[in-house]
Amino acid sequence: MKLLIFGSTGSIGRLLIKQALEQGHTVTAFTRDATKVDIKHNNLQVAQGDVMDPASVERAIQGHEAVLCSLGAGRKGTVRSEGTRNIISAMEKVGVRRFICQSTLGAGDSRGNLNVFWKYIMFGLLLRPMYADHVRQENYVRQSRLDWTIVRPGAFTDGERTGKYRHGFPSTDKTTKLKISRADVADFMLKQLIDDTYLHKTPGLSY
Known about the structure:
- 35% of the residues lie in helices and 21% in strands.
- With 207 residues, the chain is α/β, with parallel strands linked by helices.
- It has a single domain (2-206), classed as NAD(P)-binding Rossmann-like Domain (Rossmann fold, 3-Layer(aba) Sandwich), CATH 3.40.50.720.
- Strands 3-2-1-4-5-6-10-8 form an eight-stranded mixed sheet, sandwiched between helices. A two-stranded parallel sheet has the order 7-9.
- α3 links the parallel β4 (66-69) and β5 (98-102).
- The model has no long low-confidence stretch (mean pLDDT 95).
């Protein structure tokens, strides 16, 4: 498929590019700084632009079959949610429908999956702005007319891609480890391109 990746220079985005190319996809990496895309491949091109600029987002989306989003905004800011809103608007305008968006375990009804530490210390205090940004991001995706899937991974680790993880567990499940390797997050996101099981759904992802 012809894929466009937002957040392409982040820790998840780099792995999305790598794994997508390994699977034979044609990939466009959207980034503000083309020099930060350090992967070289015949099936990889770079679209330089700012996700906060609707015009550059719309130009990049044209000609693609699916869009993957792993935008980050640090612990503060609204780049994640506002950028996602620009992506959605452009996709609806251009006519690209498949959208796979990485959020976080704990957003929406998955809050029930969290333990006390993550619920009240991390997301309640330390990462509160980031959590709120993810909530806004998910709301924009849910309200869209796209064929969306919101992926909600647990805390990231630097482990290898295993392909062995839990996904789609109920919001009442408190038995997961609340962590997942970045490589396995990318693995699961790319699998959604050929699987409609989670179309218009918000699967959690964890070991």
